[in-house]
Amino acid sequence: MGRMANLLLVIAVMLTVATGPGWVQAQIGAPPAAPASALPGSLEGTVKKVDASTGTVRVSSGLFGLFPRTLEVTGETQVQVEGRQGTLMDVHEGAKVKAAYELRQGKNVATRLEVLAPPAPKTPPPTMKTQ
User: Is residue 44 part of a domain?
Assistant: First the structure.
């Protein structure tokens, strides 16, 4: 029994020595983080809402459009509508868009917003006329 107690004591001391410096560093804490840089992101989806008064556009994307994201459109945002330069006023609900954005101070700020051309209507295949 005495041998077992000595073994447990040795293991406890070894663990204390091994984890002690890490525990002290955890208590001191990490140095203050540098200001968060903008985190880039992108999405492709359908415009659900355009709010010109707040300068935002809500885009649903993902599986069945279940993941909506609100993007802030600023004066620095490059807006393209079907290949030409545009503004937020040219973006309409229901339009398909591709967007690049950055996370700045908790907001998704659009850096580029591209309104895609609607798909061309499908023409029915020619029918064979029989005589």
Answer: yes
